[in-house]
Amino acid sequence: SSFKPNPSRFCFCVALWTDLCLRTGICTDVEMGSPQGFMAAGLVSGSIGFLILGALATMVASACFTKETPNITKGESRRLGLVVVWTATFCMWIMWACVYMHQMVPLMAPVHIATK
Predict the structure, then answer these.
(1) Cα gap 84→61, rounded to integer Å
(2) At 6, phi and psi to the nearest 5?
């Protein structure tokens, strides 16, 4: 039996995770402009989401894309899959985190200083 990803299951999991965050108080509203730091609720829940995504991608890579060829053993193929999955997950997470943090305290009205 081969694993076939189901987009509707993924959407259900995302909706379930969002509901869980809201019910437990992980994702709470913070007053605009107040410092939230690295432990901001949205940043933490998004990071946990990327960890879950990486774990699921690891299982899919190990189950579906690991095979032995004359040039590579099954163990080496599995390790290569792990490197690819976690490198991609980290790159996507760091890009998302930078974009998210840049929006935490937006620059709404820039102040221009006139020099003579």
Answers:
(1) 9
(2) -120, 110
